[in-house]
Amino acid sequence: MGDVHREAQDQGDAAPSMEGAVVVGVHRGQSTTVVAEAARLADELGRPLLCGYVGEDTYLAEWDKPDAVAEESLHPTAVGAGDGEAALALSTAIGEALDEVRDDRPPPSWALRLLAGDPAKALGRLASEVDARLIVVGTRRRGMASALEDRLAGSVAARLAHDQLIPVVVVPVDTKDRGQESLA
Questions:
Q1: First and final C-alpha spacing in the chain
Q2: Nearest Cα to Cα of residue 52 among 15, 87, 96, 95
Q3: How far apart are the C-alpha atoms of 180 and 184, rounded to whole Å?
């Protein structure tokens, strides 16, 4: 599945270049605050916004041979069950969130890329591929499943901050507000 480019679809133009983009990790159920803050940063830096969604059932791609992992994590050849629908739903939700953020200016050019594998590694490889200016992620969700996932795999934000040579911005999400909007 290729990038989903909203502006290019709306205007019938060629897809915008993502070189030097602000990369933001997105997932279903994520607070729109993360995308909104990434869009503000992209706008202030004059950069496009590249949203990276890591397929939920693709973690084991990291167990493949190292030379195959980088290619598969950036350009999955097979879309897992539900990932195609999730990407389309996320694309719609991201567009709506970006429309709400902007009062008097259009949102920055943006795209959604479907990734595979370990989220921190896949986002890092995506950032490297487009020579990203920075990576934006949100704080983790609350709950037992998220706590167990962090215990076993580690925090995506912490691993990115440790492994990357470009800035990593972690957007705090107020998890006490159960009524806040979330992506797809």
A1: 18
A2: 87
A3: 13
Q: Encode 135-169: b = buried (16+ Cβ within 10 Å), e = exposed.
A: bbbbbbbeeeeeeeeeeeeebbbebbbeebeeebb
Supply the pLDDT for residue 101. 76
Per-residue pLDDT at 102: 66
Give the closest residue to 74 by CA, choosing from 148, 29, 132.
132
Q: How deeply is 43 buried, as exposed, middle or buried, from its count of CB atoms within 10 A (0-12, 13-18, 19+)?
A: middle
Q: Which of 148, 181, 177, 184 is nearest to 32 (CA)?
A: 181
pLDDT one-digit tens code per residue, 157-166: 888 988 889 9
In 24-105, which residue ranges form alpha helices assigned H by DSSP?
A: 32-45, 66-74, 83-101
**Separation between Cα atoms, residue 112 and residue 56, nearest integer Å:** 15
pLDDT tens string 38-90: 999 999 999 999 999 988 766 555 555 555 555 555 566 665 656 678 788 88
Instruction: Evaluate whether 17 touches 44 at the Cβ level (below 8 Å).
Output: no
Strands 22-26 and 4-5: unpaired
Q: How many CB atoms sit inside 10 A of residue 53's CB?
A: 27
Residue 37 scores a pLDDT above 80: yes
Q: Give the pLDDT of residue 88.
A: 85
